[in-house]
Specification:
By secondary structure, this protein is of the alpha/beta class. The chain has two domains: 174 residues, Aspartate Aminotransferase, domain 1, CATH 3.90.1150; 252 residues, Aspartate Aminotransferase, domain 2 (3-Layer(aba) Sandwich). The protein is built from 15 helices and 14 strands. It has a seven-stranded mixed β-sheet with strand order 4-10-9-8-7-5-6, sandwiched between helices. A hairpin with a 2-residue loop joins strand 1 and strand 2. Helix 7 runs parallel beside helix 8. The protein starts with a helix and ends with a helix.
């Protein structure tokens, strides 16, 4: 047994499934999870001291690379004055000001500790603001594990749940809660138009991954986005952009800056904390003023605005704001996808790729899918084999065909070339 096997066996005795987040368990791809001992730049090392090129980067946050010296120094400095106060700090104001400056649709922002907390709070706020109950989400999109959002949800739930039923994707979620959640196909303009025509005056909010990353990378059509913005405006519903994944990852101003859409509320996380557990939701001042202590929508968090996490976030946002950062990140990610596509073509394996900023998706199919249904029709078995072949070559991909991948500023030409060379070997074996 490898040391990873030993640790996984040990973990399963005291941790359900041996992991603290389901997708880490390798259930879709099979095999033993890698237990990480350290990470630096684009690499991490497992319990066997084997080095891997990391292409999930903590599922997005590590955009400036693991253990970035500037971020580490900022965290050390903050930690020296205590880990938490439970009282306001100037750093919280600075982070809020920075977010509002980078994302113009956000006039005010509330800091929280996780993406799930951000989305559930944004939904409660939207319901409190509109006085309505019904929300719309889209099939295959994952917005955290709040009860009302676990219907045909993406991410790890696509591995564990029966997504063919319009029912809770998780046990413990009352059907009574789910009746207020309408689930529509991603990129289906006719479906959302029909629902608003039928019950638009009951809809509190539409929550959307503006670039889906939890059923692999799926981009929205312009018509789809325009229809959502137009209908929510027309019927007085709140448009919530869940940019926990895409915020500061696909562009400095998030997906909304690329799409020309101004949502009413935005949820942020991951990159904004540089890998520390912090998130936020924010938007129009008129809506945000409904939050306690100003309004009657209650939300609170003991560790919200944690000073160490704030320090990591501020330094990360400073680094990614530097000239040329996103141009270089985008170029490197495109280079990676183009190289992998070339190797697949060489091996005569159907393979499609897509990327936005430092976020990418690849699919064992002839075309890039545009919906959850299309993703399920890709060759998932080929992905599973490819995952292990790449792992053998020292490249760590997301252990699920339903997850997007991520690069960082430390994925330089040498690292990209190494990944492409590994892919070449993997595709040759796959096609043999």
């Amino acid at each position: 047994m490898s040391q990873n096997d030993v640790l996984f066996e040990r973990a399963q005795k005291t941790i359900p499934g041996g992991v603290n987040s389901p997708v880490r368990a390798f259930r879709q791809v099979g095999g033993t999870p890698r237990f990480v001992t350290k990470a630096q730049g684009p690499y991490f090392w497992d319990a066997e001291n084997r080095r891997y090129i990391d292409l999930i980067m903590s599922w997005g946050p590590m955009i400036v690379g693991h253990a970035n010296p500037e971020v580490v120094e900022a965290v050390k400095k903050a930690a020296e004055t205590s880990f938490s106060y439970g009282a306001p700090t100037e750093g919280e104001i600075e982070l809020a000001e920075r977010i509002c400056a980078l994302v113009p649709s956000v006039e005010q922002v509330r800091l929280v500790s996780s993406g799930t907390e951000a989305t559930m709070s944004a939904l409660r706020l939207a319901r409190g603001y509109t006085g309505r109950d019904v929300i719309i989400k889209f099939e295959g999109c994952y917005h955290g594990h709040a009860d009302s959002l676990l219907v045909k949800a993406g991410s790890g739930l696509l591995t564990f749940a029966d997504s063919t039923q319009n029912a809770p994707s998780s046990g413990g979620v009352p059907q009574d809660l789910v009746k207020h959640t309408l689930v529509l196909p991603y990129n289906d303009v006719e479906a959302i138009e029909a629902v608003f025509k039928k019950q638009g005056d009951q809809i509190a909010a539409v929550i959307l991954e503006p670039i889906a990353g939890n059923m692999n990378l799926i981009q929205p059509s312009k018509a789809f986005l325009n229809a959502i913005r137009s209908l929510t405006n027309q019927y007085g519903s709140v448009l919530i952009y869940d940019e926990v994944m895409t915020g500061f990852r696909v562009a400095l101003g998030g997906a909304q800056s690329l799409q020309g859409i101004q949502p009413d509320l935005t949820c942020l996380g991951k990159v904004m904390g540089g890998g520390m557990p912090i998130a936020a939701f924010g938007g129009k001042r008129e809506i945000m003023s409904r939050l306690a202590p100003l309004g009657n929508v209650y939300q609170a968090g003991t560790l919200s605005g944690n000073p160490v996490a704030v320090a990591a976030g501020l330094k990360t946002l400073e680094i990614i704001s530097r000239a040329g950062f996103f141009e270089n990140l985008t170029s490197q990610t495109q280079k990676l996808m183009a190289g992998m596509k070339q190797m697949a073509d060489k091996a005569n394996i159907p393979f499609a790729v897509d990327s936005v900023g430092g976020m990418f998706g690849f699919y064992f199919s002839k075309e890039v899918p545009s919906s959850y249904e299309a993703v399920t029709k890709t060759n998932i078995e080929a992905f599973k084999q490819f995952f292990h072949l790449m792992l053998d070559e020292g490249v760590y991909l997301a252990p699920s065909a339903y997850e997007a991948g991520f690069t960082s500023m430390t994925h330089d030409d040498a690292v990209i070339s190494a990944i492409i060379a590994a892919a070449d070997k993997a595709f040759q074996k796959l096609g043999a």
